[in-house]
TrEMBL record, chain A:
Belongs to the iron-sulfur cluster assembly SufBD family. GO terms for biological process: iron-sulfur cluster assembly. The lineage of its organism: Bacteria, Pseudomonadati, Pseudomonadota, Gammaproteobacteria, Oceanospirillales. It comes from Halomonas halmophila. SUPFAM superfamilies: Stabilizer of iron transporter SufD. InterPro entries: Fe-S_cluster_assembly_SufBD, SUF_FeS_clus_asmbl_SufBD_core, SUF_FeS_clus_asmbl_SufBD_sf, SUF_FeS_clus_asmbl_SufD, SufBD_N. This is Fe-S cluster assembly protein SufD. Residues 176-404 form the SUF system FeS cluster assembly SufBD core domain. Residues 18-165 form the SUF system FeS cluster assembly SufBD N-terminal domain. Pfam families: SUFBD_core, SufBD_N.
TrEMBL record, chain B:
Transmembrane segments: none annotated. InterPro entries: Fe-S_cluster_assembly_SufBD, SUF_FeS_clus_asmbl_SufB, SUF_FeS_clus_asmbl_SufBD_core, SUF_FeS_clus_asmbl_SufBD_sf, SufBD_N. It comes from the Bacteria. Belongs to the iron-sulfur cluster assembly SufBD family. It comes from Halomonas halmophila. Residues 209-451 form the SUF system FeS cluster assembly SufBD core domain. It holds the Pfam family SufBD_N. This is Fe-S cluster assembly protein SufB. Coiled coil: none annotated.
Length: 448, 480
């Protein structure tokens, strides 16, 4: 039996358990399954998957989780300490007990996808699957075939959401390795504003597979800040396809923070369709052990006077493998574009590897596009400067590595997120960097 | 600029377009083992050479055309191409310019490269290739004195079989890629250079390639070997007559540099780019690779690409030797409906290897241009260093400029930097020039030449002059 067939068999089992669902949902599910079967899992001869091998996902017999039981104490420890409207999913299953939506302001709808589908809610019928079609990738097709849970966020015109909306995805360790295919749909009407925190975390021993599809529609002047904090357990596989559509004067600010997961792949696409639309992609990834982190981004400038800025930083230690592929596409007649793109990587070990490709595809002449990629070590002069101030070499390297990540972390506006990331990065730094001693000294000095 | 004036410039005909009427000894179109046997026999090759060609052919049959390049062209019918064409009277090759067919000399006159004058003025030895057979070689004796071998690859196969057997295919193996395999099977000529230990070649070596005779593919094979501490600079320049049918060109160039050797390879390519609708024009699929085998060896590629309808070309360096250096300097200009997918590969294998890539792309008209490069640092390449700068200039709103730079870094001590920009010619720069009485077209030429300066200064003197002129001609009518 082929790997693909095993997944399709799981789908058939699940479909047999399903009650009645709207015909359009069943039709899309079918289309997803057919497309997945036709495409098959990507192999490394496919350009977009040249550096990422998904064989381990394909060969594992993942089941689907049946419940959302999770120790409240563990959940509390994992949850970001932030005052928010929160939905929690355990292995893809909605967990009402761990969710707290609180009082949503008027004009804001946040609901689990299962509920929206069951109600045949107007929020899902049209937009769901419009941006991420089944043709995007085998994983997007697979997600469409299995889609049943996730979140729907809908903002009425001129609504400003008071608190961040947190979507928390918990991965559980257990007898079976499970897969989940969450689907997030955000529709922000004109001039609305929100902050979305997507947090992937779980029990250390978990070894599950998350296959996420996310569609974000920003109407005129809408502003969305999107934190994707991926701290999945080290044996988890995490595949995410994120599509954003931006109308005139909208702004999408993305923080793609990848600290966890064994095999991680993010596809982030924005369609800049209206004049004045702007996308900012900030990214940070830290790989250790045999972690594999692959970030693919596309900024498609489909209209004149659209802007994109991208800054991804990677730190790779041990035998970790990082991949960055950023692409800026400027369509014909999309004049007066400004796009810049930068990817900087730090290799801390001789067995770590980075494959980076910042691409430009430009069909208009009145553009200002620049990209850069650097890979290397710390600036020796900076190390020297710190040493002249009495800091030993390894500590200096530790501090500079932190500062390297800081260039992205410092842009994070939410303390709960930035502190979490800073601590995680500091905790990952190799012991030789000796930072523990420095932190103690600093706190001792503070006490004095 | 007045639009009428502009239109005239746009409609400018290809300056080098004419056909020389020389009777060719041409093989009918088609490719099979008999074709290869015919070529081999015609060249009087030994059995091992024929076997090598047939091996390549067998591999080619199993391969498929690469499709990853950002190029759009109809499939090539390899059976519709004639694989051999040589000027007649092959038996009594001319020994000096006086004996050369006056029509051929006339061709060179039209091109503005009078062979004798050029050779005398610049002190350059020219192994001129007219279609597939080398017609005349000059300064051979002077080179022989220095111990440098410079001859056609066919002669080398006859006269220096050990050297050819040792090095041919050692940098670009027969089955390296589709076009290299095809070339290995059917190559008809090209140059062979061998510079022995400690010798600095006393002059710059140069070959002018010409494509003539309708429907004839040109399959050149060039092999340059520099023994330890040897040094050579090689110039390759091309121009072709106007023609309606697409002509396929699939050349292979192999460079081998041993300890402390230095090879500088410069190209000016100005083949027929096709008419304004993109008809005709040369398909140029070239495999160029240098092997820095020795410690501290140095290979430098400089190219000015202004011609061809399709360019598929990635001069590369395998940096094996400790502290070896690879360089790539490129200016590519596309206008009309030209398409170019070009760049380089720097493979850092040895410790302390360094490479520099400077690529300047200028796209005008309805052309499409891509830079595609790979910098790979292997786990043993401690302290490897690369700097890449690739800039694109867009002229007009109907062209495209793309960059696909691959970096694969597997060593923490490596330092790899890539920078790229894409922009149009600055309005303020143009205005500045025009306010000082410089016409728009001249201003654009000045700005473009300034944009390309980093590359032009790497070219040998006479090439640099030619390149600037070529650039101006190529961009004529592109500005408005």
């Amino acid at each position: 039996m082929s790997d693909e067939q095993r997944f399709l068999d799981r789908l058939a089992e699940r479909n047999a358990q399903r009650g009645n669902e709207p015909t359009w949902v069943a039709a899309r599910r079918q289309a997803g399954a057919a497309r997945f079967e036709a495409l098959g899992f990507p192999h490394r001869r496919v350009e977009d998957w040249k550096y990422t091998n998904v064989r381990d996902i394909a060969r594992t017999d993942f089941t689907l989780a049946g419940d959302a039981e999770f120790s409240p104490a563990t959940a509390a420890a994992l949850t970001l300490p932030v005052d928010a409207h929160r939905l929690t999913f355990v292995d893809g299953v909605f967990a009402p007990a761990l969710s707290a939506l609180g009082d949503l302001p008027e004009g804001v709808q946040v609901l689990p996808l299962s509920q929206a589908l069951a109600d045949n809610h107007e929020a899902v019928g049209g937009p769901l699957g419009r941006l991420t079609g089944v043709d995007f990738s085998a994983f997007a097709a697979l997600n469409t075939a299995f889609m049943e849970e996730g979140a729907v966020v809908r903002l009425a015109p001129r609504t400003v959401v008071d608190k961040p909306i947190v979507l928390q995805f918990l991965s559980r360790s257990g007898e079976h390795q499970v897969m989940s295919h969450p689907r997030i749909l955000v529709e922000a009407a004109s001039s609305s504003q929100a902050t979305l925190i997507e947090h992937h975390v779980g029990e250390a021993e978990a070894a599950n597979f998350t296959n996420l599809v996310e569609e974000v529609i920003l109407d005129r002047g809408a502003i969305l800040t999107h934190y994707k904090l991926q701290e999945a357990p080290i044996k988890d596989s995490h595949i995410a396809s994120i599509h954003v559509e931006q109308a005139r004067d909208s702004r999408y600010l993305s923080f793609n923070l990848n600290l966890g997961g064994g095999l991680v792949r993010n596809d982030l696409v924005t369609e800049l369709n209206g004049e004045g639309a702007e996308a900012v992609f900030n990214g940070l990834f830290y790989g250790q052990g045999r972690q594999h982190v692959d970030n693919h981004t596309w900024a498609n400038h489909n209209a004149p006077r659209t802007f994109s800025h991208e800054n991804y930083k990677g730190i790779l230690d041990d035998r970790a493998h990082g991949v960055f592929n950023g692409k800026v596409v400027v369509k014909r007649d999309s004049q007066q574009i400004e796009a810049d793109q930068s990817n900087a990587n730090l290799l801390l070990s001789d067995r770590a590897e980075i494959d980076t490709k910042p691409e430009l595809e430009i069909y208009a002449d009145d553009v200002k596009c620049a990209h850069g990629a650097t890979t290397g070590q710390l600036d020796e002069e900076a190390v020297f400067a710190l040493r002249t101030r009495g800091i030993d070499e390894q500590t200096a390297r530790g501090l500079l590595t932190l500062a390297f990540a800081g260039e992205v972390m410092d842009l994070v506006d939410l303390d709960a997120v930035s502190e979490r990331v800073e601590l995680a990065v500091a905790g990952k730094l190799p012991e030789r960097f000796n930072l523990a001693g420095l932190v103690e000294t600093a706190s001792a000095l503070n006490e004095e | 600029m007045a639009s009428q004036e502009m239109e005239e410039l746009v409609r400018r005909e290809y300056k080098e377009g004419f056909v020389t009427d020389i009777e060719s000894d041409t093989l009918p179109p088609g490719l099979d083992e008999d074709t290869i046997a015919f070529i081999s026999k015609k060249k009087g090759e030994p059995q091992w050479m024929l076997d090598w060609r047939l091996q390549a052919y067998q591999q080619w049959l199993k391969m498929t055309t690469p499709s990853w390049a950002h190029l759009d062209y109809p499939p090539i019918d390899y059976q519709a191409i004639s694989y051999y064409s040589a000027p007649k009277r092959e038996e009594d090759k001319p020994q000096s310019l006086d004996e050369v067919d006056p029509k051929l000399l006339e061709t060179y006159e039209k091109l503005g490269i009078p062979l004798h004058e050029r050779a005398a003025l610049a002190g350059v030895a020219v192994d001129a290739v007219f279609d597939s057979v080398s017609v005349t070689t000059t300064f051979k004796e002077k080179l022989q004195e220095a111990g440098v071998i410079f001859c056609s690859i066919s002669e080398a196969i006859q006269d220096y079989p050990e050297l050819v057997q040792q090095y041919l295919g050692s940098v670009v193996p027969q089955g390296d890629n589709y076009f290299a395999a095809l070339n290995s099977a059917v190559f008809t000529d090209g140059s062979f250079v061998f510079v022995p230990e400690g010798v600095t070649c006393p002059m710059e070596l140069s070959t002018y390639f010409r494509i003539n005779a309708a429907n004839t593919g040109q399959f050149e094979r060039t092999l340059i070997i520099c023994e330890s501490q040897a040094e050579v600079s090689y110039l390759e320049g091309c121009t072709a007559p106007q023609r309606d049918e697409n002509q396929l060109h699939a050349a292979v160039v192999e460079l081998v540099a041993l300890d402390d050797a230095k090879i500088k390879y410069s190209t000016v390519q100005n083949w027929y780019p096709g008419d304004e609708d993109g008809n005709g024009g040369i398909y140029n699929f070239v495999t160029k690779r240098g092997d820095c085998r020795g410690e501290r060896s140095h290979i430098s590629w400089t190219q000015v690409e202004t011609g061809s309808a399709i360019t598929w070309k990635y001069p590369s360096c395998m940096l094996r030797g400790k502290d070896s250096v690879g360089e790539f300097y490129s200016v590519a200009v596309t206008n009309g409906r030209q398409q170019a997918d070009t760049g380089t590969k720097m493979i850092h294998i040895g410790e302390g290897t360094r490479s520099t890539i400077v690529s300047k792309g200028i796209a005008a008209g309805r052309s499409d241009q891509s830079y595609r490069g790979l910098v790979k640092v292997g786990p043993r390449a401690k302290g490897a260093r690369n700097f890449t700068q690739c800039d694109s200039l867009l002229i007009g709103d109907t062209c495209g400029a793309h960059t696909f730079p691959y970096q694969e870094i597997g060593n923490s001590t490596a330092k790899v930097e890539h920078e790229a920009t894409t922009s149009k010619i600055g309005e303020d720069q143009l205005f500045y020039c025009q306010s000082r009485g410089i016409g728009e077209e001249d201003a654009v030429n000045m700005i473009v030449n300034g944009f390309c300066k980093d590359v032009f200064q790497e070219l040998p003197m006479e090439f640099a002059v030619e390149a600037e002129a070529l650039l101006n001609v190529t961009l004529e009518g592109a500005v408005g």
